[in-house]
Amino acid sequence: MLDVSDEVRAEIGEAEAARLLAGENAPGTYDCTSCRTPGDTGQERTSTVLFVGGETAVLAFAHAACIPSQVVTVSEEQLRGAVASITGQSTVAEPTAAPGTPLAAELEEATGQVVLGVTCGQILIGEDLYPALVVEPSGPVARPGSDGPGDDFLPLLIEAGFLPVTDVSKAPSQVPGWSVLLAMGQLHSVLQADAATGQTAAWWQAHQPLAVTDGWRSTANQKQTVLVYAAPAGSIGQQPREDLLRDALEKAAAGGLLVAAAMPLAGT
To answer: What backbone phi and psi angles, to 5 degrees, belong to 143?
Structure first.
């Protein structure tokens, strides 16, 4: 009952794929790499998910109902974190949050000394619940090559396809070439494809994979879409509850200080 996609088969080879399908190398029972609950290859359809780093690869398994068999490209550092997660040997304390509590983390970025703060929360659009990321820098973001004191964070994002938000109750449009990488049930990065080459790179990457709440992960897997909001430094702040986060987003939108884009979920 194992699914091995053509792209996974191409990476691992026909011989290894045949052994998997024959049950020789299948794990029997496993923890789903998407929803993190137990699975059984002998009782339910199971997807093979291959995490590929710079020089190594790790094969994981997921409920076919959660995600299809696929290849997920991650950095070598991210792959080491995935291995630790698979083997249960992680020694790094990971942040957690109670349901209804936004989860925040500071992340690396490419704008000099400014740090991007990211908050994970869920947002209600109409009657539908969506997973959301709220990105806010710790200070003004200058345009590359500029020495001026101005803040070009929002203009740069608008040039990349984000749109101004005037009404938080309406879902933002999808921006081509961007995606959110959730691997091994943890948030790794926001990816952006180069318009000229088509190559994907991390626009934003966590210092270490960020644990998200079960509710956020479940909604992300259900929607396969993440709403990414961004605001200038000092516009949102770290809010202790999702209702307060929503209020802060609405205030930023009313002041013309909020942009957003919908992005497909990449990986698991």
So the answer is: -65, 135
C-alpha–C-alpha distance, residues 69 and 262, integer Å: 24
At 103, is the pLDDT very low, low, confident or very high (cuts 50, 70, 90)?
low
Domain limits, the chain: 2-87, 103-267
Contact, 138 vs 233, CB < 8 A?
yes
- Distance, in Å, from the CA atom of 53 to the CA atom of 55, rounded to the nearest integer, reads 6
pLDDT tens digit string along 126-176?
999 999 999 998 888 887 776 666 788 999 999 999 999 999 999 999 998
Q: Could you give the CA distance from residue 188 to residue 239 in angstroms, rounded to a whole number? A: 22
Which residues, including other chains, have CB under 8 Å from residue 19's CB and lie 6 or more apart? 25
Q: Using a cut of 0.85, tell me whether the model's pTM lies above it.
A: no
244's tokens: 């307060």
For residue 50, which of 105, 13, 87 has the smallest C-alpha distance? 13
Rg (CA), the chain: 19
Structure tokens at 73: 């490209």
